[in-house]
Specification:
Elements (H helix, E strand, L loop, with lengths): L2 H25 L14 E5 L8 E4 L4 E7 L2 E6 L11 E3 L3 E3 L6 E2 L6 E3 L8 E2 L1 E4 L2 E4 L1
Antiparallel strand pairs: 1-11, 2-3, 3-4, 4-9, 5-6, 6-7, 7-8, 10-11
Bound molecules: FE2/S2 (inorganic) cluster.
The site of FE2/S2 (inorganic) cluster has 11 residues, from loops.
Length: about 140
């Protein structure tokens, strides 16, 4: 008798893990459940990799960096605010694209250009040190 509630709890937990697992597969090949923004500084490599007037996606770090004007960098979490999939490409005209349900985001402001996402991408501090980008 006393084991029935425990079993139900285990089954509910398994269902939650299953749902989270699906999200992890879709969102992070590493299977890590990462925060939408870094909790410590993240080195992203050469600042010159980010084109002026364009942006670069760092899928592994779940970040994107844009350079709207020369020397001005903007960084955002690249996990879609709809259900957490990591953006898969950046198009100059169409912005950052989410492969799961088609949301698009402005890479210079993080704003939603097309739903179903309704919340902007979270901005992350970014700086250049010795020609390298450091986010977080
Ligand atoms: S998770 Fe990005 S549009 Fe749904």
């Amino acid at each position: 008798m006393s084991q029935a509630p425990a079993r139900r709890t285990v089954l509910q937990g398994a269902a939650l893990v299953g749902a989270a697992g699906l999200g992890a597969v879709a969102c992070s090949p590493s299977g890590k459940t990462a925060s939408p923004v870094p909790t410590e500084p993240v080195a992203l490599g050469a600042a010159s990799d980010v084109p002026v007037g364009g942006a670069k996606l760092y899928r592994e770090q779940r970040l994107l960096v844009s350079q709207p004007t020369k020397g001005q960098y903007k960084c955002f979490g690249a996990a879609c605010t709809h259900q957490g999939c990591v953006l898969d490409k950046i198009d100059k005209r169409e912005g950052g694209h989410c492969p799961c349900h088609g949301s698009r985001f402005d890479v210079t402001t993080g704003a939603v250009l097309q739903g179903p996402a309704t919340q902007p991408l979270p901005e992350v501090p970014v700086k250049v040190e010795g020609g390298k980008l450091i986010a977080g």
